[in-house]
Amino acid sequence: MVFYICKTLILVAILHQAAAGRRKQEDFLEWRDYIDGKLPDTSIVVGRTSTFPGGIPIYVGLVHVEDGPNEGYLPTNIIGGVIPVNVSLDDETIISFDKNVKILCGKGHYTTRIFWVQTSQSTFPSVLESDQYRPVFAGWQFGEDNKVTFNSSIYVGKGTEGQFGANFVGKIYQNHPDPLKNNRLYSPGWYSTVTKFDTFDSLVWSLVI
């Protein structure tokens, strides 16, 4: 009897581990259409425009951008259900969009499966290799940088900007040919230029049940 109980427990453990091994980002997160400024109940909140009372909630958006030789699916800020949204493509210029915008939303037991991890340009590779979690993949960016063609994976991060402690969404490059840009966060914040962060937070989803 004890043998069969032990055998059953071992089988359950194996199945449990196998199920965990099949986990993927889509189990907990999805990109939904963002229309007319309407926020789904499960929209992922990044932070607020200010730590003071009256700060406006910020959510994670995504836009497909095409501009000359550059194209990509890039994360951006959705501030308080407002449109349009701003996106940085070439890391210098801000482009505004009011159509074909998506918003990141949770699925299932997402509230206990996604969180932010403090990161830097030098430590982001360890986030990619973690046994505990994976960074949230947004898409990719293809283009030219100083006449060098690149195709980078793009992940979701946030940086704290300004004296009021605003948290702004941005893109984290992975496999960018320029070492100064690779694994770094770029965010279209309040202003007309892109803010670059060497220290930031990475949005991750848990591999652990």
Describe it:
- By secondary structure, the chain is mainly beta.
- It has one domain (25-206).
- Helix content is 12%, strand content 48%.
- The chain has helices spanning 2-21, 124-128; strands spanning 29-33, 45-48, 57-67, 70-79, 85-88, 94-97, 101-106, 114-120, 133-135, 137-145, 148-161, 166-174, 185-187, 195-197, 199-206.
- Strands 1, 2, 3, 4, 7, 8, 9, 10, 11, 12, 13, 14 and 15 form a 13-stranded antiparallel sheet that branches. It has a two-stranded antiparallel ribbon with strand order 5-6.
- Strand 11 and strand 12 form a beta hairpin.
List keywords for this structure.
13-stranded antiparallel sheet, 2 helices, signal, 209 residues, mainly beta, two-stranded antiparallel sheet
In short:
The protein has 209 residues and is mainly beta.
| Estimated share of beta-strand residues | over 45%
Total strand segments? 15
Amino-to-carboxy terminus distance = 29 Å
Q: What class would the helix/strand composition place it in?
A: mainly beta
Q: Give the SSE order as H and E letters.
A: HEEEEEEEEHEEEEEEE
Number of helices: 2
